[in-house]
Design a protein that fits this description.
- By secondary structure, this protein is α+β, with helices and mostly antiparallel strands.
- The chain has three domains: 175 residues, Heat Shock Protein 90 (2-Layer Sandwich); 77 residues, Winged helix-like DNA-binding domain superfamily/Winged helix DNA-binding domain (Arc Repressor Mutant, subunit A, Orthogonal Bundle), CATH 1.10.10; 174 residues, no CATH class.
- The protein is 40% helix and 16% strand.
- The strands form six sheets. Strands 2-1-5-6-8-7 form a six-stranded mixed beta sheet, covered by helices on one side.
- The longest helix is centred in the first third of the chain and has 16 residues.
- It is elongated and about 90 Å long.
- It starts with a helix and ends in an 11-residue tail after the last strand.
Length: 463
């Protein structure tokens, strides 16, 4: 950590630290600046860290920010570079006959240390597991405020780099030569016009999303679609968390899904820019709806959406006094929506309790994109809470099922509830009370769905 390089080599004959700044041109691999233990400075690890960090961060743009009257000179890029440099020094195998090599190029940084990783790449990316090769060095850096023993170094680097919308860092192992290399490339994933387009489409909602959610939308806009696998390449999120994020973006009306299983693609939701922002504004109504039960009806909000031919959106009303959000939708064609192929859908309908012209949706992917957004708005007062008043839950279900049959899977996803518990505690009792009507006489029919049996009472304007 301290001392002079010639003394360090008495114990570690292969000790060598090397910093190079290169032009980045393919025809010129020579360095234009270099720092090695050449006798003009101590050559120890701490001084190498201090000098190299200053060289690596020289030229990085620092936006003007104040905290408690002091300018903040640290940015996520500075944090990522500092963490990468510390990790390289504390995880290096100083007994190996290869040098530590740090390279700065105009558009990238490279950190190479001798020695293979002591945990798997997957474990390093997920974090939480620490197995440092040089614990005394790690402790010394901790004493001066750098590094930790929580195994969070690599995830922190990836997250800080992703926050700048740069391509994902590359962490690789050269097994034959026993080298580990981390590449940080400053190649932007976001073109200014892409971000401007999304801001226009989604309004202020886009900037309020998490970094990972914005990255999903940016990818869908720039590449035409996004998938679980694509986001896995760009973030450090667990695949299960990525799936959950994508479902949330679908439920919130930002994305629409295509396909099933691992092949599912997600594209930006149907509608023009102004239209999408208009629908998302409706989602803010759940704050008043769920918290301030004032009994005051909000003004009518008329949608400017470009409606697909099978739907006609007439008007939307929020009535907090009656715990009800009303979206009046006129279904034009087709009269039925089948999620499973059937050679004789009319024959299947003959078994239903009543033949109606309400559409039937058994799976979320079968629900048209625009209707998905509308139903999500209706369900938000319930889906956003774990505990809910049973009366509010029932009235929300009635609003969701008004004018259409919804299967239990659709309702469970919309309301963010367990399907078995929802069916047992709410749907079945509502059928017995005459509030809901079944699509088929047999309660356990595999294609069972529910629709409102009675129309909700009209809202009364406050006088």
């Amino acid at each position: 950590m301290f001392g002079r390089a010639e003394v360090i080599r008495d114990v570690l004959p292969y000790y060598m630290v090397d910093y190079q700044e290169q032009s980045g041109r393919d025809d010129d691999a020579r360095w234009i600046d270099r720092l090695i233990p050449d006798g003009s400075w101590s050559g120890n690890i701490y001084d190498f860290f201090s000098k190299t960090y200053q060289k690596l961060t020289a030229g990085l743009k620092v936006p003007f920010q104040l905290k408690e009257g002091q300018r903040i000179e640290d940015t996520p890029a500075h944090e990522a570079i500092r963490e990468a440099l510390v990790n390289t020094l504390i995880h290096a195998d100083y007994h190996a006959p290869k040098s530590i090599l740090i390279i700065k190029r105009p558009d990238s940084f490279s950190f190479r240390n001798p020695g293979r990783m002591r945990i798997s790449l997957e474990s390093a990316l997920h974090g939480g597991l620490s197995d440092c090769r040089n614990r005394h060095l790690q402790h010394m850096f901790q004493l001066v405020g750098f590094g930790d023993q929580a195994g969070s170094g690599v995830p922190k680097i990836f997250k800080r780099w992703a926050s700048q919308h740069w391509v994902q860092p590359q962490l690789t192992e050269d097994l034959p030569n026993e080298l580990t290399t981390l590449e940080l490339r400053m190649i932007s994933l976001v073109l200014p016009e892409v971000e401007a387009s999304l801001t226009t489409r989604f309004g202020s909602h886009f900037k309020s999303l998490s970094e990972d959610a914005r990255m999903a939308l940016i990818t869908a806009e720039s590449e035409g679609a996004v998938s679980n696998q694509r986001l896995k390449q760009m973030t450090v999120m667990h695949p299960a968390d990525i799936s959950k994020l994508l479902r949330q973006l679908v439920n919130q009306g930002y994305l629409q899904s295509e396909g099933v299983g691992r092949g599912t693609l997600y594209r930006l939701a149907y509608g023009s820019s102004a239209q999408t922002a208009d629908l998302l504004e409706l989602s803010d109504l759940h704050t008043t709806y769920g918290i301030e039960n004032t009994g005051v009806n909000t003004p009518d909000h008329r949608s400017s959406y470009s409606i697909p031919p099978e739907h006609s959106l007439q008007t939307t009303r929020v009535d907090t006094r009656n715990h009800r959000i009303r979206l009046h939708i006129t279904e034009v064609t087709p009269p039925y929506h089948w999620t499973e192929q059937s050679t004789s859908p009319r024959k299947e309908l003959a078994d239903a309790s009543e033949q109606t012209e309400e559409p039937l949706y058994l799976d979320w992917d079968a629900v048209p994109a625009l209707l998905q957004g509308q139903l999500t708005v209706l369900a938000q007062p319930v889906s956003s809470r774990k505990r809910i008043d049973p009366a509010l839950l029932q009235s929300t279900i009635l609003a969701l099922c008004e004018g259409r049959f919804l299967g239990p899977r659709v309702l469970a996803q919309l309301l963010n509830r367990d399907i078995g518990d929802l069916r047992k505690r709410t749907l079945t009792p509502m059928v017995h009370q005459g509030l809901l009507r079944l699509a088929y006489p047999a309660p356990n029919a595999p294609r069972q769905a529910y629709t409102s049996a009675t129309k909700p009472p009209p809202s009364q304007e406050r006088t």
